[in-house]
Amino acid sequence: MAAEEGAGALAALRTINNVTFGGGVAPTCLAHTPAEDAPDLLVGLSSGEVLLAALGDQVEKDAGGKRLVGATSFNKENPSGAGCVCVAWSPLTTGLFSVALSDGSVLMYQRPLVEDGPSNCRDTGMFGRGKPAEKVGGGPTVQWQIGFAPVEAMAFAPDGRRLGTCGRDGVFRLFDVESGTLVGGCTSYYGAFLCLAWSPDGQFVALGGEDDLVCVYSVADRCVVIWGEGHRSWVTGVAWDRHWQPPRKVFGATELGASGGGYRLVSVGQDTQVLWWDFGPPESAPEHRRAPSLSQRPLPLVKAPPSPAPKASATKPKHRRGTPSATSGASSGGGFGSNVSLEAGVGAVEAAAALSFTGLSDPIAPSVARAEMVWMSPLAQSKCHDEPICAVAVSARALWTVCAGPRLRMWRRP
To answer: If you average pLDDT over residues 87-104, what whole number do you get?
Structure first.
């Protein structure tokens, strides 16, 4: 791959607004969603706080680099002290977003409504006239305690009905957002999962991690259906090429130069390599590799009533990090607790509903031996950085990569 001819324009980019967070707090993640007249930018901090602001306000106004303009704060108290790992907007419900913390918890928040005028209510997150520059948003509507292992990546399905998470315990988990149910997942061959990405149609999830493999989980088959080997170090980013169309067949043969895959996938790793994959879904996965279906063994989460706010002298429950629970087994990826009582402070928010898992390992498909894996080979690969690559994104015209240098580079699509 050659660098995009217009990539030199990146050097001419100028800083419009530069925000520096004091007190040793650093931004760790962000998410943006198109919205009309509403805050659309989420910024997660190492302190566990999440800031919600309007991206347009950051461009049009200047706060002197001290803070985001007109930001609303969520999880500011953060009794657990866990840092924010990733944030994501729901594509289904307007104003709904999720926050993952380093203590293995996932929180759901709803962007608050404000009144603008006598009878008009706008979904603008407390940014009406006369409002303070910074407000504290409401508490989480739901909190899921996945375990003690940090969540490394999180993403909603394209339809917003499913949420996928993966983390240091080497388990990918699939949740039904509306019912609060663990509906599927899988374990890595070994080590942690570090990244995930949904296919454009929501049928597959690409995963990468410390086993140096790219694997594709099938939502319908409830297991991993194919593995890709080509990286020589940890896989740190995966992305589906939504702008690629599978080749048409002419008289029973694919067109010249086409590989015939149904999906195109891009992965990057700490080996500084970018790999392109063509993935053709297999007809069906063997039954013994699949996790039990929900029709055979429904696994709703246990919903506990909100608890009162704890007193200052209340003793927090002590948990031993990495201690297997009674219900976790080999297929849950090392066994981080499934029936976990939430830390004190969660009940301090009246709207929060504590959810714990029952039979966590049941819907999680275990890994298989290498001899049983179905393999795919990379279509192309290239060394794109001198430092480990951290993330990748694919646009209609280019491929974007970020390395630990840190450098942002744009590449011509092959």
So the answer is: 90
Q: What is the largest CA-CA distance in the chain?
A: 77
Query: Cα 274 from chain centroid?
Result: 20
What does the block give as tokens for 86? 């990733």
The helix/strand/coil state of 332 is helix
**H/E element holding 60?**
helix 55-60
pLDDT tops 70 at residue 238: yes
294-310 burial: b if 16+ Cβ within 10 Å, else e: beeeebebeeeeeeeeb
Question: What pLDDT sits at residue 192?
Answer: 94
**Gap between the Cα atoms of 263 and 246, Å rounded:** 7
pLDDT score of 311: 40
Question: Cα torsion at 9, 11, 12, 15 (round to 10°)?
Answer: 130
pLDDT at residue 63 greater than cutoff 80? no
CA distance 236 to 191: 13
Q: Are 292 and 277 in contact (CB under 8 A)?
A: no
Residue 413 forms part of a structural domain = no
Q: Is residue 354 part of a domain?
A: yes
Phi, psi of 255 (to 5 degrees): -65, 160
Q: Is residue 210 part of a domain?
A: yes
In a domain, 169, yes or no: yes
Q: CA 132 from chain center: how many Å?
A: 31
Q: What letter does residue 178 receive in the DSSP assignment?
A: T
Contacts of 21 (CB under 8 A, 6+ apart): 27, 45
Going from the C-alpha of 187 to that of each of 146, 166, 290, 326, the distances in angstroms are: 14, 9, 12, 18
CA–CA dist 100, 266 (Å, integer): 25
Q: What is the pLDDT of residues 342-392, one digit of tens each?
A: 333 333 233 333 444 444 446 899 999 999 999 999 999 999 899 999 999
Label the pairing between strands 72-74 and 135-136: parallel
CATH number reported for the structural domain that contains residue 150 in this entry: 2.40.128.630
DSSP 326: S
pLDDT at 194: 95
What pLDDT is recorded for position 161?
92
Task: Assess whether pLDDT exceeds 80 at residue 308.
Answer: no
Q: What is the pLDDT of residue 376?
A: 92
Phi/psi-derived region of residue 22, left when phi > 0, alpha when psi is between -120 and 50, beta in every other case: beta
Structural domain boundaries, residue 147: 5-236+276-377
Q: Is the pTM of this model over 0.85?
A: no
